[in-house]
Predict the structure.
Amino acid sequence: MTEKFSLSNKKGFGADELTRTLNSYIGDIVSYILASGGDILNFAGDAILALWTVERIQLRDVISLVVKCSLDIQDQCGSRNTEVGCQLRVKLGISAGKLSKVVIGDELSQYFLVIGRAVDEVRLAEGLAVAGTIILSPNAWELCDRDNIVIDRIENERAVKVRYMKREPSFSVEKYQDSVGAMVEHEHLTRDCVRKASRLTPNAELENTFRKYIMKTVLQKIDDGQPLEYLSEMRPATIVFVNLQFSGGQSEEGLCAAIHRAAIGIARQMVSHQGRINKVFMFDKGCTFLCLFGLPGDKREDERAHALQAACGIHDICQREFCNLKTVSIGVTTGPVFCGVVGHSVRHEYTVIGRKVNLAARLMMHYPGVVSCDSETCYYSKLPALYFNKLPKKAMKGIKDPGVLYQFMARKHSITIGIAPMSVVREEGYPLLGREKEISVFSSMLKGYLESRAAGHTNYNNVLICEGPVGYGKSRLLAEAVYRTAKEGVRVISIELAKTDIKQSNYALQTLLAVLMSVQNCKSYADREKVILSKIEDPEIKENLCLLNDILLVKFPVSKDVSLMDSDTKNKKMRNYFVELLCKFSEDEPCVYVLDQAHFVDQASWAILQEACERASVLVCMALLSCTNQSGPFPEFSRIITNPRTTYLKLLGLEPSVIGQLACQILGVTRIPSEVELFLVERSHGVPFYCEELLKSLYLGHQIVIEEVQEEDPAEDIDILFPEPTLVVHLSKPSQVWQQEDSRASALVAGLASADGVWRCKVLRFCSALVRETAYDLWLKEPKREVHQKCAAFLLRQAHRCRACGVHGFVFGHKAAVGNNMMEVRPLSGEALFTGRRGPPRPQKRRISLNQVRPLQPNSEEDTFLLKLDSMVRDYKRTTGRTRKCRCAQLVECLLCPMVHHCMGIGDVAKTFFYLLETAAALASLSSHLQALSYLNEAKIILDNLKAGHPAFETADPRAKVKINSIERACVFRLTGEVLYNMGQIKEAESMFTRALRILGKHVPTNPVVMSVKYLHEKIKSQHYRSRIFGSPGERKLAFLHQQICCLSYVWQIRCMRRTPQNILSASLAITMERNSARQTAEEYKITFSCIDYLLYCQLSGREDQGRRSERMLRRTCSELSDSQEDLTLTSHLVRTLAIVKLCSGALHDAIRYGLLAEKISELTKPLGLDMRTIVVLHTPLMFTHRYGECVRLLLGQEYPGNGVAKGCFYVACFHFLLYSGFAVRPFEECHAFVEESHSDPSLVAEQSLMMSLYSALALWYTRLFDWEKACLFYTKAWRVAQQAPSSIQAINGTVVFLECQVLLFRKALVEHNKHIHTIYKNTQKHFSEFTRKYSTNRTFGPRVLHLRAYLYLLTGHRALSRAILHQAAGLCRQHGNKLEKGWIRQSQNLWFGACRQSTAKEAGSFMTLPSWEEARGVDPEELAHNRYTLMGVGDQSWADSSNLCFTPNTEDIQILKGQG
C-alpha cells in the first residue's frame, strides 16, 4: 500500500494521504482497544502492541474480554478499501503471561521496552495469523475460559485459531478502568475520561521523568505551546533502521543489559552525527531502532553522509562489544517522508511514514549483517564510489522497484590510489552558460601561464579559486576549464574530494601524485613501481624513491640516508621531495591541476600545495564552498588565498536572460514558454541547481509536457507587456498625533527650580545612601509597599520628557501601546515636585562664532536652500528667545529612576517594565550607554522570568498573570541594539535588531534566495504604496510602525558596513521595508525621515545618481517646513545627513557648509550642541581645508566633563593635529596619558572605533620615531580592535592611520632585510584591498590612501608607478579642495623625485618639538607644514636597493600607470 500511495503522487509525495488513511483505520482499532480497557504500548509502522495489565485472579476473565475485543475489531475493521485500490486487513495475535518493562538509555533520553514470555508468544502468534484471523498463543489458550471460546486447531502448533464466543464476557470494564492508574493522583476525573494521564496532578519530578521519553523535536513544540499538528509535514529525511538479533540461551537480565548498552552506543553515534532515535521496539523483528536524520532543527546539507557514517559506527560498535549478538543489520534510505503525529486522537506518537521508511525496514531484514542503502543515499552522500558495493536484487514485500541498492563499506573492501574522478564532465554540445566572465578569467590565466612558461619567468597568476554556495555551478565551471585546457593540448590532472578525505593526511597529495605518475589504475605495488621508474630518470630523485612507499603504497628499498633520519627530519625530507617531484614534472610538460570540493583538502596536502604553487611552474584551479569552516583553520590555505598570484572568483547567480537557455539545455528542447521562463527566473534566483530542481518537479508532476514542434513561433516582446512603472513620491497629510501637546508639560517645568546647578526640594532626605538602605530594610513588607505606592502616585504624573525637548515620552507611543489608562493616577492637589527660589542664572556657555554659510547671494538651488535654512534658524531664535535649557538628565535622575524603584517595590510588573524602558531610552539619548544597558538587562530578566513561569521579580505577586505586549518586548531589544550600535558593538547590535524585528513581524532574512524574493515583494509594495493614500493608523499601530522604522534604519546601516553583495542586497531590502513602513504611518515627518535615510543609503551603497535625485527632492520638501520644534528637528537630521554625504563624496567645502549649519540648528534642538561623533566628522574637512582656527575653536568649545566617549573623540582629533597639521592642540604627553587612563573607563573601552583610532595614532607616532617596542605594543592593540571594529564613518580615521603604520612597518622590514619581506608586502597589499572594499563609497581619505600606496611602490622600486599614483592623488586633492594632503603630496614629490633629500635623523626629529596652538595661531598653514612628518624617499640609500627583490604591484594600480601613458 505504501508503494501504491507513493506512485500515485508525484515524486513519492503520497505519504500524507497514506497517513490519513492509516490514522483513520488505526484510530478505529485503537478505539475498540481503549473501550475494552486496554492501552497502547507502541506503534511500529502498521503494527500495534496493546496491553491489559491484570492480577492473576482476573487473567481468565480479561482474556475473554480481549478475545471479544478482537472479534469486534475483525467484525468492524476486518476489511476496508482505500482510494489506491488496496484493501486494508487486520490480523491479531493474543498471548498471556508475565512480562518485564525495560528502561534503556542515558540521563538525557530514555526508551522503554517490554520483554518476556508473553512478548515472545504474541510475536509467534502474530506470525501464525493471516488476514482476518485471531490466534491465541499456547499459554493464553491454557489460561482462558475454554468453555466459552470456540477454536480451530492449527496443525503441528500448540497455538489455536479463534472462531467465536458462545456468550458475552461478564467482566466489568468500568471497574477495571477505574483500577488502572490508582497509584498516582488525578484531578477532576470523570467516568468518560479516556485519557486519564491528562488529568494527573502537577508533579515536577514526574514531568521531568516523562520528558526523557519524548523526542527533543516534539518537546520544543510542547514547550512553545504549539499544537502537535504543527509537527506534521512532508519533508526530505534520512531513515536508518537498526536491527539487533541476539543469540538464544541468555537470561533476561543479560539481554536487558545488552540492549541498554547498545542503546547508549547508538545514542552516542546519533548525537555525534546530529541524528535522533525515534523509537525502539522488540515485538516484531527482534530489537529494532528507528533513527532519523533531517528532522526540524536538525537539517544539514551532508546529513546522508552523516547517516551512513553513523550506521557504520553502530555496526562496528555492536560487533565489537557484544559477543552474544548474532547479526547487526542496518538499512538506510533517503527521500520525502511524512513526519508527524500518527495514531488515535488520544493515543499517538511522533514518527515517520512513507515509501522510504518501508524500504529502509525491508533493506534491514533482507540484507542481514551489512549496512545497506538505496541509490539516493549513495548519490547525495557525495562519498567516493569506492565506499559502496552493489548488492544483488531481492524480492521484497511491498516494494515494486527499489532501484540500485548498495552496501556501504566505508573503504574496507579495497585499497585504491588516485581514484577520485570529477563527478561532473563537460559533454560535447552542452556548453557552460552564463559564466563567460569566469571562463574569460581562466582563459587569460591559461594563456599567461603558457606564455610565461615559454619565456622562462613566473610573472603570472597561477592559482584560480572559485568560491560559491552549493548549486551555483562550481563543478560545471571546473569541467568547462578541463574541457578547454584539454583542447589546448595541455595535460589536466583533475580530482574531486569528499568530506571524509579531510581526515586522511596527505590524501589529496596522494591522489594528485598517483594521477601525475599514471599509477592510479595499477593493481599491484609491483606495477606501480614499474611505472614510477619509467617516469623518473633523475638519479638524485631515484635515490630517495623510498619516500614514496607510504603515500603511493610501493616497496622501494630504503636508502641509507633515509634509514638514519628521525621522524621530524624524514617528514621534512618527504615534503621537500614531493615538491621536487611536482617541480620536476612541471618542467617536463605544462600541467593544470583541477581540484573540485577543495574545502575537503587535508592540512598536510595544503602545506605542500602552497609550496608547490610558489616554486613549481603550474596552474591550479580549485572550487570550494562559501564560508567554509573545514579549511578555515589551515594557515597554508589562507596563505594561498592572500598570495598576490592568486585570483579569487566569487560566483554569483546567473543573469535572468541565461535561465531560459539553461532550462532548454536541461530539458533538451529548443524553446520553453515565457510563463515557465518567468517562473524559473523568479523562483531560481539565478541558481542553476534550483532551476534544475524546479524543472524536475514540474516535469514529474506532469505540469510541463515536452512536445515536438514543426516550426518556430516568433518570440514575443515581454518588455512591451510589462513596462517599468513610473516612480511617484506621495507625502500623506501629517497625523494629528504629532500636533497634540501634553497639558501636563507646563506643570512639570513650572515646578522646577535651580540653585547653583543643583535641584532643590522641600522634602527631607537621607544624607547617606547606606543609612537609607538600612532603614528601608528594617521596614516590614506592607509599610514598604505603602511608601512606594505614595511615592509612585506622586511621581507618576511627572514622568515625561522635559519641555525643552518635547512632551512625548522617551519611547514613542509607549502609553498608547500599553494603554493610557494604566498610567493614569489621581492628581495630588497642592503639591509641587520642585519648589523654591530660583537661583542666580548660570553663566551661559560661550558659543563659537563661526563663519556664516556662504555664498550670501543665491546662485543655485542648493544655495537657495541654505539661505532658507539660515533664515529659519534666525526666525526660530527670534520667536523663542534664548535657548531653552534641557532638563532630561535631571528628569532621569529625579523622576524616571525613582519610578522604576517604586513600581518594583509595589510589585506592579506592568508599570515597572514601562518605566524600565522609559529610563533606558532616556539614558540612551543622553549617551549614558552602560547605565541604559543595566536597565535593559533588568527588563530582559523580567521577560525571561515570565517566560519560565516564575515571578517577574522578588516583590511581584506570583499569582498575578502578566503579559508584556509585543511592542514593549520589541522595544527592549531595539533599545539594546541602539545602545550596542552606539558603543561600536555592531555584531551584537545586529542580533538585537533582528530579534526585535521578528517580534514586530518584519524579519530581514539572511538566506540569499529568501532575501531576493522578499526584496522583490517589498519593491512591488513600494510601487503600490506610492499611489495609495493611507489614513491615520491609530496611536497603537503608529507606535508599532515606529519600532519597525527604528530597527530597519539601523539594520540597513549595519549591512552597508560589510560591503559584500549579499549584505548590500540585505541593506536594500531593509531600507525599502523602512520606507514602506513609513508610508503606512501617513506621517509626513516619518516619511521624510525615511527619505533622509534613503539619501544616506544611496551614498553608502554607491548609488550616487539616485542619491542626488533624493537630495533635490528633500531640499524642496524641507524648504517648505515651518520653524516649529518638530520641523526643525527634521531639518537638523537632513542637514547632518547632507554633511556626511558631502564628506563621503569628497566635497569638503559643502560638507563644512552643512556641518556648520547643523551646529547652529543643534543649539536650538539640542541645547548641549552637536554630539561629539558629529564634531569628529566635521573637524576632518575643516582640517583638510586648512581652516584650523574654526576647527580648534569647535573642539575646545564643547563641554565633556565626565563623558569619557566625548573626551575620547576630542583626543582623537588632537592626535590628528599632532600627526598631520604641524602643531599640537594638546601636548602629546596629555594625549598619551588619556589613552593609558582609558582602560579604566568601560564606556570608552566599549567604543571599538574610538579605541582603534587612539591605539593606531600612538602606534604610528612611535613607528615614526623608530621606537619599536612601544610601536609594537600599540600596533598589537590596534590590530586586535580592528578585527571587530565596524566599517563606519567614525572608524575610517583610525583605519587610515593604521594603514600608514602598516606601510612604515614594511619599510622597517625592508631596511632590516627581513626574510619574510614578501609576506609583509602581501599583507600590506591586503590591508589596502580591504580598505578599498570597506570604504569604496567614502572618498574623504582617497588622496591619502593613494599617497601611501605610492610610497609603498616607491619602496619596492616601482618609481614610475609611484609617480603616476602620486599624480592621481594630487588631482583628487585639487578636486576635493584638500589643501592639507595637497601640501603633503607636494613635499613627497620634491623629496622622492626632486633634488631634495632628507636624513632619517632629521625625519624622526622634525616633529618632536611641535608648536602649540597658541604659538601656531595666525601662522600660515604652509609654514606649519614644515613641522610635519614626511615620508622618507629611498633615493640612493643602499638599504633601499630592492633590485634583488621582486614585488608585484596590483593589477588595478598598473592600470593607473597605463592610463597616464
About this structure: The chain has 59 helices and 25 strands. The two ends are 79 Å apart (CA to CA).
